[in-house]
Automatic annotation (TrEMBL):
Keywords: Signal. It comes from the Bacteria. Residues 1-22 form the signal peptide. The keyword Signal applies. It comes from Pseudoalteromonas obscura. InterPro entries: DUF3080 (IPR021431). This is DUF3080 family protein.
Length: 327
């Protein structure tokens, strides 16, 4: 029993001490700075991403109690009644969207039913047309209020794991489902609102996308900070003066090869690949909801990650050129 407890304790310590992927950046800068008897670098805390919650669209048309009583032959009557009860009024945004989608389908069936009085048909048609026009605004309301979706705009302490996780697989499945749902809204009578529920279930307590976005922003910050510090070094005076030994230059090269080339560069490639995996989905969300309402977070991150890495590598290319040290 004691051995078992000891094993659990050791496992906990080991797991707790596992460094985050970007911690390599800290070691990298410490080793670089040590060459000049300086302290390592640090990055500033990340700022919050711009985010606005979109209000629920307001309805101008309602079905009166009197009209509802005339719809006993229609499924839409039960649908409206359930929505108007206490539980319906407290429904989550995603359930309210599903009500809107189902109302469009059920209302059309009732409008087409010859047993429906003409005045009620007209009321249903007005309400249906309004809800058709509000489908995308309603879904935007869902995206900016359901915690599983608005978490994409928030920071997290957990960084992305290098290995593929269950969370990553489920997050990609959820994003695929959401994209299919959105594209299917062009034919609302065929759209399936339960797809939204399925996607939210896979994103519940799943911080993969949030961690990916945060990890990328952290890496970009390290790239900018490290490159800015390197740019303060005068290569021909402090690093590799003409006619003197190249000890410092050789040590810098070893540090760059060991930490950046062998580790950080591969980590950045992995971040870029994963961002490319989710980019089409976020672009779809932005295209349908509007750039100002739901900005695409991913594409600018990919651009900045690649540009910051390119600037960093450019400094080293110049280093090799000036100091004439073999990589």
């Amino acid at each position: 029993m004691k051995c078992k407890l000891l094993f659990i304790a050791l496992s906990t310590v080991l797991l707790g001490c596992t460094p985050a992927p970007s911690d390599t950046n800290k070691t990298y800068t410490e080793r670089l700075a040590k060459v000049f008897n300086s302290d390592g670098l640090s990055i500033e805390a990340l700022s919050m991403l711009p985010y606005s919650a979109f209000d629920k669209p307001k309805s101008s048309y309602t079905i009166s109690v009197i009209d509802l009583a005339k719809l006993g032959h229609c499924r839409v009557s039960t649908h409206i009644a359930n929505h108007n009860n206490q539980l319906g009024k407290l429904a989550k945004p995603s359930e309210q969207f599903k009500y809107t989608l189902n109302f469009i389908r059920h209302a059309q069936a009732c409008i087409d039913d010859e047993r429906t009085p003409q005045d009620v048909q007209q009321a249903l048609e007005l309400a249906r047309q309004e809800k058709l026009a509000q489908l995308y605004p309603m879904l935007t309301y869902v995206f900016t209020h359901e915690k599983e979706l608005n978490q994409f705009f928030t920071l997290t302490f957990s960084e992305i794991k290098r290995e593929t996780s269950k969370g990553e697989i489920q997050a990609l499945e959820a994003l695929n489902t959401l994209t299919s749902l959105i594209k299917g809204l062009d034919e609302p009578n065929k759209a399936n609102g339960d797809m939204l529920t399925a996607a939210l279930e896979k994103l519940n307590n799943n911080s993969y996308v949030q961690s990916l976005i945060t990890s990328t922003r952290v890496q970009i910050a390290w790239n900018h900070t490290t490159t800015a510090w390197l740019n303060t070094l005068e290569l021909e005076h402090r690093v590799c003066p003409v006619g003197k030994n190249k000890k410092r230059a050789k040590i810098l090269n070893n540090v760059f090869q060991k930490f950046y080339i062998q580790d950080i560069q591969a980590y950045q490639s992995q971040l870029a690949k994963r961002l490319h995996d989710i980019e089409p989905h976020f672009q779809t969300f932005t295209d349908k909801f509007g750039h100002n309402t739901y900005p695409n977070l991913v594409t600018p991150l990919i651009t900045e990650l690649k540009q910051s890495a390119k600037s960093h590598v450019y400094w080293w290319q110049n280093f090799y050129k000036v100091c004439k040290v073999s990589p």
